[in-house]
Amino acid sequence: MLNEDESEMDAFNYLKLDEPLDTRPLLNGESLEVSMMSQEGDSTIEMHRLQVPELYFNANDLLTYVDLTVKDSGCEVSPFEQIKLSMTELPDSEGKVSKKIVEAGIGEICPPDAFVKFHYVAFNEYDEVPFDVSKLRRKFPESKKLGSGELIPGLELGIATMRKKEKAHFIIHYDFAFGILGCGERIPPKSSLLYKVELLDFERMKVPENEDFENAVDEELSFQALLKKAEGHIKQGTYLKKEENNNHRAIKEYKTAVNILSKIPLNSDAEEKMKKHAITRAYVNLAICHNYDKRYRLVCTVFKDALYEGGEEAKKDAKLHYNYAKAQCGLLNFDLARKMYRQVKVLDPSQQDRVDSLIKDLERKQRQVDEDHKVFKSNMSKMFK
């Protein structure tokens, strides 16, 4: 029943971006499923590009980050090519990542495997309105581990050349960004990007000696022993989430369970069935935690991984599909969210009334989004007349 996790499935927040896009599927040469608004004449594509930033951010706040240097100025070279004239190409980037230091940093250069804290503003070429501004999404800076695949390659390569407190601009070719496909509504195909980055702090990776089980499975243990170990981590994660409200540690426990189960040796169909049931539970709880943090792109990754690892068990799980629908709502992919909600009703008919109510809320929010777009477009027209 979906309502078992009612406390974790809080109200939707459609008007703010939760985090940078999760790019790992694209980096593996795969595509991402996105929904599109209904077409209205020849302006459909432009509407998609204009629509996105102002719907995630407060329009007045967004205007303070407008950069007219990325807009077409009528020169023979493109805006990014003009900007690159004052930049230096980074080693190991095949000439596809260029950097300009805006404000020098202090201390040593950031190690390539460090945990980093930073802020950034990101632009598409020819679009003076940024598609992402980290400071507008949350009070705290981005916190990532370099080398983990959470960042596009060009941004990761660039940050690894910075020092603490440094501010720098990077032009990143699409080969080192989101590839030939782009990513959803915000980033068109073959889009080179401008990132303005401020590296606040970093620290070298430290792995406690008593946590080595997370990265290796003892193959001498029996299937039942490993399954019990994984289920113990799932149980601990649920306790941390519900009783201590410690989402961060809960995520760690669920990830440990997934790691154990994904590597567990199987000797029978019965063992495979038990493994898929357990790993689907772990992924569902991960999705709930990421939705709680409004990290919707990570929910999408979890959903895909769950379908791959859990097979039919995951395909029949209503909670998994519910959380995927919720994440798509957070990303403003309303059509896909609506489709997933309808799938939840098929998987769990007892939830029909509740899901119908959620779909009505979705449609109300979509109307509000359309209205916000009209207001922002009007403000932009007045500002740049």
UniProtKB/TrEMBL annotation:
GO molecular function, one term: Hsp90 protein binding
GO CC annotations, alphabetized: cytoplasm
PROSITE patterns referenced in this protein's UniProt entry, alphabetically: FKBP_PPIASE
Pfam families for this protein: FKBP_C
Gene Ontology annotations of biological process type: piRNA processing; spermatogenesis
Annotated PPIase FKBP-type domain residues: 113-203
This protein's record includes keyword Repeat: yes
Name under which the protein is recorded: peptidylprolyl isomerase
Organism: Bemisia tabaci
Lineage of producing organism: Eukaryota, Metazoa, Ecdysozoa, Arthropoda, Hexapoda
